[in-house]
Amino acid sequence: MKSVPPLWKELSESSDFVCYEHQTNAVSLFIGYFKSLTDPKVLHQHIMGPLSNEPDLSFDDLYRSIPVAEKEISWDWDFIHNKMLRGNVAIQYGHQSHHCILVNAADSKGRSVTIPEIEFTVEGPKEAFVESLDVNLNLIRKRVPFPEFRIKELKIGSISKARVAICYIEGVTNEQFLNTCIQRIEDVQFDQITDSTKLQQMIEDNSNSIFPQTIGTERPDYVAWAVSSGQVCVLKDGSPTAFFAPVSLGSFFITYEDYYLPWIIASILRLIRMFSVLFSVFATPLYVAVLTYHGQGISNVFLPTIVASRINVPFPPVVEVLIMELAIELLREAGARLPTKIGQTIGIVGGIVLGTAAVEAALTSNFLLIIVALSALASFATPIFRMSATIRILRFPFIFAAQLWGLLGIFICTLALVAHLLRLTSLGMPYLVPFYPLRASDLYDTVIRPPYSKFHHRFSFLRSPKPVRFDKKNANLKKDIDE
Prior knowledge:
- A hairpin with a 4-residue loop joins β1 and β2.
- The model has no long low-confidence stretch (mean pLDDT 86).
- This protein has helices at residues 4-11, 40-53, 59-65, 77-84, 133-141, 175-186, 196-203, 220-229, 263-293, 303-310, 317-337, 340-360, 366-379, 385-405, 407-423, and strands spanning 17-23, 28-34, 71-74, 88-93, 100-104, 149-156, 162-169, 215-217, 232-236, 242-245, 425-426, 429-430.
- It has a 5-stranded antiparallel beta sheet, sandwiched between helices. A 5-stranded antiparallel beta sheet has the order 6-7-9-10-8, with helices on both faces.
- By secondary structure, it is of the alpha+beta class.
- It is elongated and about 105 Å long.
- It folds into 3 domains: 4-104, no CATH class; 133-247, no CATH class; 262-430, no CATH class.
- It is 43% helix and 13% strand.
């Protein structure tokens, strides 16, 4: 095996690498570290202090005298190299020795824990994940103070060497789902993985589907709930987003704020979201189909209004719809990519100006403008961003099918969509459960949010070894202190 000092000379080609010799009465010590990764306070107070105060220490005494908990001895250069790239200081005792003392002096710089920006909630905790894996694990661990809560850490990426943590509760999480998740992460072959969203796409069952098969979140309380339900959570160092699986289609229309609201209000809001999704997908295709092929189906009440609004429009309905849909998507992308204050202004002013100008220029009807605006608003009701983007894209195949075959085209496109969803899985679990295969007992927390006295069982489709949360016989008992 190569000796360490020559390899340190190779590393010195990087300007942030520091390598120098510290002479003691007994032997020369070679110290190497990356100053961009090392905390100067730990280096000078806890490492260089013992070396200067006691110059005649042996190798074992030197190891014991360093007052840092995370330290170890190694002679494997690949291991030493990886540790130094994580902020460790390497100390070699003597020029001929291959043993090194590795002391963790990593300087962890990053933003502090703040409120959620994407999944903001009025009620409930106001903490969100940050880019530090250790901080994120702390946010989860303090919410799951359970001895069976397990964290398995892996490293992936030939260049990034990214730390990935897999969280689950032993005895609650199904081992098949856990082993499948671990295997897929270990089998990832990629050089640079900078964010957990990349990892999501790599381990999903069908990466060619526009439907996400994992749920990403920035909320530690949501992850704690998912883990306690029997799902597997994955976090990556450097990413403020965690994701968990397996999930079903109905999970994407549930926001964790539902569990902080009274169950009747939360159930109504959940039903509104599901209706919004259907309206967002089918509103404009139905407009194209009815005006192109099925005009006789228009009620006499609405017929004069529709005819009056389209009397000066030179385009067929499909062109009219595509112009407005593309304009909405352009405004949405511009608002998302620009700085916050400018993006809000562009979205509001652009929507008003373009909508008014399009109607006055007879490029579109005011009736369609209302439908497109409501459809765009309905797509925002989906709480998960990736599913919201899927619904936005899903409208266009339905529009083209409606132009080709009318209502029959919408029906054919719907059948193709259902067939695709029937074939999708998440970590091997059917994507459409509990609707298909039907699990009547699991519909309670998919379509509506029941009271907590009904949460006595976990979802059956998660196949948890411990399906019972609590004894349902005592769930409704409310004894006062004077009884």
